[in-house]
Design goal:
The strands form 2 sheets. Strands 2-1-3-10-5-8-11 form a 7-stranded antiparallel beta sheet. The protein has a 4-stranded antiparallel beta sheet with strand order 4-9-6-7. Helix 7 crosses helix 8 and helix 10 packs across helix 13. The chain is globular and about 60 Å long. The chain is an alpha+beta fold and 339 residues long. It has 3 domains: 206 residues, Jelly Rolls; 57 residues; 55 residues, Homeodomain-like (Arc Repressor Mutant, subunit A, Orthogonal Bundle).
Length: 339
């Protein structure tokens, strides 16, 4: 139900918010599933949002769900373009029969009108930050981002483009993505709801994702095939293995498992993976572990021996040796530099 945030609620560890970005409304929980599916099937034609509020337009509105949960199951939602993010804990998202576990280091995307099932396993303490971009907002914003300025000036809003669709995969949360999410959270806490600011922030997020899509397109072009459709299919198979790597931050995954996930022999998988990403799977996993170590060292006081165990190293000596080789300074030295 709509409510006004108090300072104590904002600062509390159990703070939860549900933003309708096209309206000045806040909700503290997922909308009722039966009601939501009914409104989706009708295209929100009555322009009624959760709680009876009037929407500015028909179609799924833009929302952010930032909530703590110890278990939920929300099946077969034909939602808008959605970014699934967890600030703490993990969730499962199923799209087109494929289930991904979304941990703290990655996010997942489902496209507009693409059914998804979201699950937080019973007993798991998860803090979500799921961003659902409204039908009108996402289509109009993506249109403006991919259309050359001179075409916009010549044709106005009538210039038609095919819809932009992103790959259903786990995306690594790099420093840029973390800054974008952080700005949304800080902006609301410091200024309250501001429609202009939120829409600018979401536009920045879409612009970032388009750059990720361009990077993927370059990766696809590296794969060996005459037919573009075959290269895309090979990329999708490799991305399944990459999802397993991203879901295993401690590196506890073998070449055989990755090759099976990609529907390839071990030899072909290893060759194509190196060709596409410029790293072997082992090298890429080591890179992820070092990046996570840097983040933990700079943001916490976790002892080095505990960090080594957390990241799946045999002992703190092997972790320190690899970290020093990659970063040019020991873990303790890194922490002293950045804190």
């Amino acid at each position: 139900m709509p409510a006004t945030w108090t300072e104590s609620r904002l600062n509390g560890t159990a703070a939860r918010l549900f933003f309708l970005l096209s309206l000045e409304m806040i909700f503290h929980e997922f909308p009722d599933l039966v009601w939501l599916k009914g409104q989706i099937s009708r295209g929100f034609s009555d322009r009624r949002g959760w709680g009876g509020h009037i929407l500015e337009k028909e179609g799924f509105p833009s929302v952010i769900i930032h909530t703590e949960s110890k278990g939920c199951y929300r099946p077969d939602i034909k939602g808008p373009l959605s970014f699934f993010v967890n600030l703490r804990g993990s969730s499962l998202c199923t799209v087109e029969g494929e289930t991904r576990r979304i941990g703290e280091g990655c996010y997942f995307i489902s496209n507009q009108a693409q059914p998804y099932t979201l699950q937080i396993e019973e007993g798991d303490e998860t803090e979500t930050f799921n961003i659902h971009l409204g039908d009108y907002f996402s289509s109009s914003t993506l249109h403006s981002l991919v259309t050359p300025v001179d075409v916009i000036l010549d044709n106005g809003k009538e210039h038609a483009l095919p819809p932009v669709e992103f790959f259903n995969q786990l995306y690594r949360r790099d420093a840029v993505f973390e800054r974008l999410i952080g700005r949304i959270i800080r902006g609301y806490r410091e200024q309250g709801y501001n429609k202009l600011l939120f829409e600018e922030q979401l536009t920045d997020l879409l612009s970032y994702q388009l750059r990720q899509q361009e990077h993927i397109a370059r990766t696809v072009q590296k794969l060996p095939s005459v037919r573009a459709a075959t290269r895309v299919q090979l990329y999708k198979q490799l991305s399944r293995a990459m999802d397993v790597i991203h879901a295993s931050p401690d590196g506890a995954v073998g070449l055989e498992e990755l090759a099976v996930e990609a529907y390839l022999s071990k030899y072909h998988f290893l060759r194509l993976f190196r060709m596409a990403y410029g790293y072997s799977p082992y090298q890429y996993m080591q890179r992820l572990r070092i990046e996570k170590a840097c983040a933990i060292l700079s943001g916490t006081d976790t002892p080095v021996f505990e960090l080594a165990d957390l990241l799946g190293f045999r002992d703190s000596q092997s972790f320190t040796r690899l970290f020093t080789q990659r970063m040019g300074v020991s873990p303790t030295g890194w922490r002293a530099m950045v804190k």
